[in-house]
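Quick check before the chapter quiz. The format below is the same one you will see on the exam, so make sure you can read both the input and the output lines.
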Amino acid sequence: MNYDEILKYYDALIDNDDDCISLLSNTSAFVKQTIPGLNWCGFYLLKGEALVLGPFQGKTACTRIQLGHGVCGKSYQAQKVLNVPDVHRFTGHIACDEQTQSELVIPISGIGVFDFDSALPDFFHPALEEFLLQVAQHLHIKLKAIDN
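Here is the expected output.
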């Protein structure tokens, strides 16, 4: 898979968009349809001391996660990418979908987290993690530009 090419398509998709919800919605849809093997992809948005479910693709999900809880809450609180190859070994994992085996969470400062789940163990190899991090960075830049 050529992640550089896919990133160009993503940039073209978001280029003329100036609405936060539209950007988040299309970003989650784009990633979900582009990366086979994901069973969930979406955003949890910072609201006070919690992350609240935002636009996503996949099964219904937990609606509120306290900061410091689960992979998402810990990732945002630490402002650190968390790549969990086996969610069953992650203390405090919040199981929204029993099929999920691995999870990657990317914090987006001031916004929330971009969360990815897979039914496959150890799914988020380094090249895929780097690609998803780049998508999150491009999105963050776009969101900051429209906020000003």
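If your answer matched, good. The beta strands are 38-47, 50-58, 64-66, 82-84, 102-108, 112-118.
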